[in-house]
Design brief:
FAD/NAD(P)-binding domain, binds flavin-adenine dinucleotide, two-stranded antiparallel ribbon, elongated, six-stranded mixed beta sheet
């Protein structure tokens, strides 16, 4: 049997770990996720205020999945075909590799069972003027959080020089961000 897990976030990583443990060597577990890193998202709040570095909350998934016997593909799923295609009823997922060595290459991964754990879609555009690169910073991913810290440092420098700074802390449109707590 072949189980494909899309996404290696909190839910996908947990699902893959338990599936492999319960199914053992006779069944395949394949994880498809676009980043080579697993990140512990809640700790991004500490990156955003300069208390942690991104490397302290992420690890290289290849090493862990190799040890566990899980086939890890650094790629994003682009389409799910639960009824297969013409000439075959085997369900499959189209993937596009994001790793440096295979970037842009596409593949087809067949499955018996599929776990879709791709998480929220960050869609800052839903709220006009919001989003990194516009008027707000975010802690929804470690690169966003590292950027938030860079911007906060600039404000701290200004305050040290006696310049007043105003901070607005909140969360975006429910369809727009990861809806982490407003820190
Ligand atoms: C700053 C912050 C603090 C938080 N604090 C808490 C807390 O204290 N307590 C709490 O319960 N929750 C907290 N949360 C929320 C929690 O982190 C999320 O609910 C959780 O990460 C959701 O898990 P997930 O696996 O569904 O999605 P994610 O963790 O977002 O994982 C999704 C995965 O899917 C991958 N993916 C995306 N698109 C594709 C694709 N096309 N193909 C393949 N893979 C794809 C992503 O790269 C990622 O690996 C916090 C969130 C943030 C941002």
């Amino acid at each position: 049997m072949k189980v494909v897990v899309l996404g290696a976030g909190i839910s996908g990583h947990t699902a893959a770990a338990f599936l492999k443990k319960k199914l053992g060597k006779n069944h395949d577990v394949i994880v498809v996720s676009p980043s080579k890193y697993y990140q512990w998202l809640p700790s991004n709040i500490w990156v955003g205020v300069g208390k942690m570095k991104p490397d302290q909350l992420r690890f290289d998934q290849y090493k862990v999945y190799n040890r566990w016997g899980i086939d890890f593909r650094q790629a994003k799923a682009t389409a799910i075909h639960p009824e297969g295609a013409t000439g075959s009823h085997t369900a499959f997922v189209d993937i596009e590799y994001t790793s440096v060595d295979k970037k842009g290459e596409t593949d087809r991964v067949e499955y018996d069972y599929l776990v879709n754990a791709t998480g929220p879609k960050l869609n800052f555009e839903v709220t006009e003027s919001m989003g990194p690169g516009k008027n707000t910073v975010s802690v929804c991913s470690y690169d966003h959080a590292a950027h938030a810290w860079e911007e906060l440092k600039k404000s701290i420098e200004k305050m040290k020089k006696g310049e007043k700074q105003r901070f607005l802390i909140g969360t975006g449109h429910p369809m727009g961000t990861c809806q982490g707590a407003a820190f």
